[in-house]
Write a structure and sequence with these properties.
32% helix, Alpha-Beta Plaits
Amino acid sequence: MKKNGRVFLIILDSVGAGELPDAASYGDEGSNTILSISKSPYFNCPNLTKAGLFNIPSLKCGREVVTPSAAYGNAAECSAGKDTVVGHWEIAGIITDKPFPVYPAGFPKEVVEEFENTIGTKTLCNKPYSGTEVIGDYGELHLKTKYPIIYTSADSVFQIACHESVYSIGEQYEMCLKARTILQGEHGVSRVIARPFAGEPGAFYRTANRKDFSLEPAGDTMLDIIYRAGYDVISVGKIKNIFSGRGITKSYHTSSNAEGIGYIKQLQHEDFCGLCFVNLVDFDMIYGHRNDIDGYARALSEFDAALGEITENQQENDLYIITADHGCDPATPSTDHSREYIPILCFGNGIKPVPIGTRDTFADIGCTVCGFLGTDYPENGKSFLEKIL
């Protein structure tokens, strides 16, 4: 469609738009991340509201606008799970039929022993844990023993935390690669994550050197298709890690939402043709998992303020899609992800501000991106491009 077009696909990590019909089977009945944070006194999102955020079917709460400025709707998740990788892969056209394994009692003895034999040292913890609490509880012992801290969460993750004075960043990443080799098949968790930390006992803190080591997608993704068609595929944030680097021509690591937003603004002024795929992770990592409603509301309000400038800087052949990958309702007792619809807002020159309804799968987004750029389509999903052009 647009041989010289650009798509900015922006994932507001965990900014879910209301419980899915099967949410109760995931323990997420009643979850609605956006509505929960909209009740905070720190919620101030006039640009998203004007775009039609509260006109989305699962978010209608009396804040609808008569004439939205963007196309709007939501999408249901077809994949099994509510994980970051599952959500991003589905957006890109891969449906995950079998949930990734989780370990509420820690990893089996045989997995831990194989990992310890491979890295040549014992480990600490091996339990589900908060990332900040685990370094508080085990950090001092780690400094004394030099044993890496391994832990998991409600997600399908194997996380390794080491102090940067004990193991260099390179050594920590190497451990993760070894764990990734072990964690395949039956124990093929979606992500192995390096969680470096620093500081002194009583004041440990996680650094910005986190790195995710994901499984490779099982088939062709939107990124692979766009890359083979000769377009640029630029990743911002953890997109490169989620897709194991496949189909990406250039990547920008970020340590905060602000940095990610800065790259969006920078890339708006650069000459590229293709896809800029962005993940803004602070919503999930800093606020959702810590049930910080006001912090979450402030973070979305900060994005909303930046959205005004982003909208002003759009070029003629740009398409902007704002969406999410799952929910993480900070108002529920759980600190886990929540099984929710994701919002969809689309704008750009020539994009009609119309309802696109509730899409059957996140994969409709990837098909729409490919349709806009004039490439082949992923195996799953159905484009809504004709509705919005």
